[in-house]
Amino acid sequence: MTRVLVVDDEPQIVRALVINLRARAYEVDSAPDGATALALAAQRQPDVVVLDLGLPDMDGVEVIRGLRGWTRVPILVLSARQTSDEKVGALDAGADDYVTKPFGMDELLARLRAAVRRAEPVRGDAEVVVVETDGFTVDLAAKKVHRGGRDVRLTPTEWHLLEVLVRDAGRLVSQKRLLQEVWGPSYGTETNYLRVYMAQLRRKLEADPSHPRHFITEPGMGYRFER
């Protein structure tokens, strides 16, 4: 059974989420502030975290950083903040998705399911596949990236996007296919998601993110990974 940790200081939102999640057979824990959230996450080991950024004791971005210090659990941000800088800040800190308040429950639940699905290990072919570039190495089987002799920490969404591109190295992957494979079949036009996450991958892996050698944009069409 999937365990969800809901972190929000608005009781009516927590109540609505708990009712809807439990009705769909999720196990749910809730926390009204960041300190309680971090303690519960360590104790209960949730499969996904739904996190408000406006908490009474600390900013939600601090909670994201605290979680990312030891876990890759999917983090779905739920916030009234709508500026692109704030969204990118949460994503850069390690969040996997961002839903703006007010929100539709169906959309939120779909995003949550997608986040959990992306975090699941791939079953089947256990063959070790390692892709090397002049700057970094991608181990598809171990789900690890090495650069300069160190592991590069990627969020589940960043990894999934990287994996799709690397498996089709040298080929143009359309925007629609990337969105559907990484975010789910109901996505196809949210190209801003791709821009944000491609920028994050370039910052983490390219020697010069402003002049990428490996993550190439084909304007209006999609992206291509070149070794």
From TrEMBL:
Transcription: present as a keyword of the record? yes
The cellular component terms of Gene Ontology attached to this UniProt record, alphabetical and capped at eight, are: cytosol; protein-DNA complex
GO molecular-function term, one example from the UniProt record: phosphorelay response regulator activity
> Cellular location of this protein?
Cytoplasm
> Which residues does the UniProt record annotate as the domain Response regulatory?
3-116
According to the UniProt record, list the residues that bear 4-aspartylphosphate: 52
Q: Which residues bind DNA?
A: 128-227
- Function statement: Member of the two-component regulatory system KdpD/KdpE involved in the regulation of the kdp operon. Upon phosphorylation by KdpD, functions as a transcription regulator by direct binding to promoter regions of target genes to positively regulate their expression.
What are the residue boundaries of the OmpR/PhoB-type domain, all occurrences included?
Answer: 128-227
Protein known as = Transcriptional regulatory protein KdpE
Which terms under GO biological process does the entry name?
positive regulation of DNA-templated transcription
- Name of the coding gene: kdpE
- Record key words, sorted: Cytoplasm, DNA-binding, Phosphoprotein, Transcription, Transcription regulation, Two-component regulatory system
What Pfam families is this protein classified in? Response_reg, Trans_reg_C
Q: What is its main location?
A: cytoplasm
Q: Which domain of life is it from?
A: Bacteria
